[in-house]
Amino acid sequence: MxxxxxxxxxxATTITLGLLISAVGAxxxxxxxxxxxxxxxxxxxHLLTAGMTLWTLATIVLGPLYAxxxxxxRLLGHTPESCGRCSTGPVDGPFVTETPTAAIxxxxxxxxxxxxxxxxxxxxxxxxxxATRRTSARLRARGTAIRLHGHDVVMVDDQRPFAVALPGRHxxxxxxxxxxxxxxxxxxxxxxxxxxxxxxQWHHLIGGFAALLARPLRAVPLIAAAADAIPHYLEIAADxxxxxxxxxxxxxxxxxxxxxPVALPVPEVGEVHALHAAGPQRIRHLxxxxxxxxxxxxxxxxxxxxxxLAFAGAAAPMPYxxxxxxxxx
Length: 329
Prior knowledge:
Helix content: 55-70%
Strand content: 5-15%
Shape: elongated
Order of helices and strands: HHHHEEEEHHHHHEHHH
Largest sheet: 5 strands, mixed
Number of domains: 1
Structural class: alpha+beta
Number of helices: 12
Distance between the termini: 10 Å
């Protein structure tokens, strides 16, 4: 009985083509789906994060799948002499006695690529965490902890109007005296509700993971487009929470008064993962959102693409799992 490597090669080729098409075509699909995604911003952020992750995993596991197509069960230690399933004759079968060097190179290359990616993310994550801790300590040292509209806030003496949310364990909501001075009470409540939503909905975790994953992979159009879009959807999700508690007029007025995001008054701005309430470009979506119906089909296709990536990543190791579980019986 023989083990045909054709299905594994066909599967690997199909997945490769799908990954290439999605890498190039997903940014266009993402732009066309934006009006629909803006109406479900939290779902959109989760969907794009999952898409980035699954695309990366599916790409990494292509190596073992192509290796199986080259060497078959020999990668798990099966030989024609010990395994009748691999044999077409008394001694030799379709798989040569030694595992092909190319198959070994594919396995090693995939392992090294995955390890390098994880190491890169871990190092960047540690740098970001250290910078955020230092920033939080400096802001707390120069600020005053108060409670405003039901939220714990660090008030910083700075005439520039800004409000940011640092990860909860590293400082939470930071508000400048300049922002408190230009906002009325309803606008201030809207800004604080916006920042609190970043904390309660774990936006730092989602956005931080996406940024770390995209950092070494921005040459891939899909990864770059998704990583750039995720913070925007997280801000819209926080806006939706603020609208629900305070109302659209107060939030829109607050965004207009705060203007563009400003840099934090500390040195490590580039490494700190802070989410800003400012951003007048979101006012249009608040007061006159686009009709999501024309964008429904691209959004469905985008969702289907993420599901397909999940199946691709799950299908790649199936030959190994099947042989390990069922053996050569």
